[in-house]
Write a structure and sequence with these properties.
five-stranded mixed beta sheet; alpha/beta; 4 helices
């Protein structure tokens, strides 16, 4: 799958412990597995678009104000996806903690 950068939780109050940022056609199944694994390790709520996104207009506000950690699943195409780029930008702008999982096909 890749490797995970270790992080510490911030003191920020949030509805979701994690938000999984991924390119659906390249990493949809892996994102689902990550959600299951994170929840089995005690994560209260994990946002994944196929389960939690009900209104696209609120996506970036969710990242900015309702997420403790943005977990970016780095595949070869994730940074070419406009919604993924927007999620990452929103997290950076609001100083949301970010964690990456790098896959073998990701090139810096």
């Amino acid at each position: 799958m890749g490797y995970v950068v270790v992080h510490t939780f911030s003191a920020r109050r949030a509805k979701f412990d994690f938000f999984l940022c991924h390119h659906k056609s390249h990493a949809g199944a892996q994102a689902r597995l990550l959600k299951v694994l994170l929840q089995s390790k005690g994560a209260r709520q994990v946002f994944i678009d196929s389960d939690n996104l009900h209104d696209l207009d609120t996506l970036f506000d969710t990242v900015k104000f309702k997420v403790r950690v943005l977990l970016v699943y780095l595949t070869s195409s994730v940074l070419t996806r406009p919604w993924c780029a927007g999620e990452i930008f929103s997290a950076c702008k609001c100083k949301v903690t970010m964690v990456t999982v790098r896959t073998p096909d990701f090139v810096e």
